[in-house]
Amino acid sequence: MTSFRPAPTWLADAVFYQIYPQSFADSDGDGIGDFAGITEHLDHLSWLGVDTVWLNPCFASPFRDAGYDVADYLRVAPRYGTDDDLADLVDEARRRGIRILLDLVAGHTSIDHPWFQISANDPDDHRYIWTPEGCPEGFVASPGSRPGAYLPNFFDSQPALNFGYARENPAEPWRLPVDAEGPRANRHALRTIMDHWLGLGLAGFRVDMAASLVKDDPGKAETALVWTELRHWLDTAHPDAVLLSEWGEPEVSIPAGFHADFFLHFGGPTNGLALRSLWSNGEGTVHEDWDPLDCFFDASGKGSPRPFVEAWTRASTAVDGMGGAISLPTANHDFSRLNCGPRTAEQLPAAFAFHLTWPTLPAIYYGDEIGMRYVPGLPDKEGSVLGPRYNRAGSRTPMQWDDTPNAGFSSAPADRLYLPLDPTPDRPTVAAQRADDTSLLHLVRRLTALRRSTPELGSAGSVEVVHLGYPFVYVRGGRYLVVVNPQQGEASCSYAPTAHRTVEAQGVRLDGGTITARGFGYGIFDLGG
User: Which intervals hold domain Glycosyl hydrolase family 13 catalytic (predicted)?
Assistant: First the structure.
């Protein structure tokens, strides 16, 4: 096993918050969120209790894929402001004990990047993967004077950076080894990019499509070596920085050098079953290749926490002792919000009771703390539509701050907003929920504070599953009993604690050796110790 410097101590207790910057807060009235808007709302994040924010890509881009098509890694996109605006955000966040992470698109650039413009006209340039002639399946014909075609990494406008192939084939001369000149230049470029932003006070990166670097790479062994090399450099050059991966397979990514990996709606041998078995109710973002399933957090009560628990157990056992962590998001910019389709606001407290007490690093997607809704039927925006049932725009609508025009997101005319607001008249807002102690927002704040003040409920505390069904019952750190019943009907199971104190509960009774939870009930109880 490769030995890395231990993760920064702050990571073990981190509560992540993801901001889609163009939809969070618009300070200058152009209809698009920006750095200054985020800075103006840092007090909300501080009050909520989150301490680590990651921003979706904010580099210069033509925005064919919402910024995941980078045209310049060392320059911020003007829509978000200036380098000074980003520096102000980082400084103001630091004063509140909040770290800022950027999103690093490591596997590809935009076709507008100068690297690609040079490569498309120079047959001797190998920063990208080019065929010498023709256009094999999966490649895109050259747009420049160079003959042949290039390999995209996602959309056609996102050419794959060349990190080499794990397996060469004489019939495919574009399969360069991982130590060829082009792949070596790209590995060096990643260090240069990281060094630039970390030197300006950023705390680390969430790495987009982290498993996509080396091609035809069985088991991702060569891709893992790329990240291992970068982690050793990071441990020396920036020992307090962290790398989070969009990989979805902690058993592979954490040994490779990532400090944490997210359970995602894809990744690993089960193609993201762990996350989808919790939240995916068949509405919102649905990939046509996914097998139909009944998720656990559904009113019907047909799901089970077993797929998630089994996946978490396998992953946590595999990475035990490596100093890495597994993160569980409520949602993200590519996946449906919790409040989606038939799932209603009354079902969300139980979801957060689980999310903030399970031994993963919790990641809250902006707006989920107030129960913002996935908005269906929106037009394609910057590459949001990936399939007939997969429109990411519904998870990217403007943050709902208050009841002023545009929900306080922007002073621009409504038709100039980055995306339309949720049109429902009872849409939740931060202001209304701040004024209501019984709101979801206040519950999330209390649960966040409880987690951060209670080591047994953190990512390192033990967990013992008492009942793997409805209700889902587990004990953290040998002391805290958690009960979650996400179905609409009452559910019960046998359990007889000798004593208990209610910490946070709604609709759960412990009586006579039986736990009874009404529909959508939840509870956290201190058993003493």
Answer: 18-396
- Residue 444, phi then psi, degrees to nearest 5: -60, -40
Sign of CA dihedral 443, 444, 445, 450: positive
Contact between 517 and 507 (Cβ < 8 Å): yes
* Cβ contact 44:430 at 8 Å: yes
What is residue 407's predicted lDDT score, i.e. its pLDDT? 98
Residue 269 CA to residue 267 CA, distance in Å, equals 7
SS3 9: helix
| DSSP string computed for 10-52 | GGGG--EEEE-GGGT--SSSSSS--HHHHHHTHHHHHHHT--E
Distance separating alpha carbons of residues 275 and 399, to the nearest angstrom? 24
Angle, helix 221-237 to helix 181-198, in steps of 10 degrees: 40
- The angle at the Cα of 157, spanning 207 to 105, to the nearest 5 degrees, equals 10
What are the CA-CA distances from residue 60 to residues 33, 196, 236, 365 (Å)? 15, 15, 29, 23
Alpha-carbon torsion (120, 124, 126, 129), positive or negative: positive
* C-alpha closest to that of 496 among 483, 478, 510: 510
361 neighbors 260 (Cβ within 8 angstroms): yes
φ/ψ (deg, to 5) at 519: -55, 130
150 three-state secondary structure: strand
State the pairing for strand pair 204-208/99-105: parallel
Q: Among residues 285, 279, 282, 220, which one has the least CA distance to residue 255?
A: 220
> Looking at residue 2, what is its pLDDT?
66
The residues facing 525 across adjacent strands are 481, 502
Q: Are 109 and 115 in contact (CB under 8 A)?
A: yes
Contact, 467 vs 493, CB < 8 A? yes
Low-confidence spans in the chain with pLDDT less than 50: none
Which pLDDT belongs to residue 275? 97
Q: Length of the chain in residues, anyone?
A: 529
**Geometric angle at alpha carbon 257, from 255 and 261, rounded to 5°:** 80
Distance separating alpha carbons of residues 230 and 191, to the nearest angstrom: 7
Q: Closest Cα to residue 16, out of 103, 91, 100, 90?
A: 100
The H or E element spanning position 456 is none
> Which two structure tokens, joined as six digits, stand for 52?
């680590």
Rg, C-alpha atoms of the chain: 23
Half-sphere exposure of 464 (CA within 13 A, CB side): 9
Of 365, 428, 375, nearest in space to 400 by CA = 428
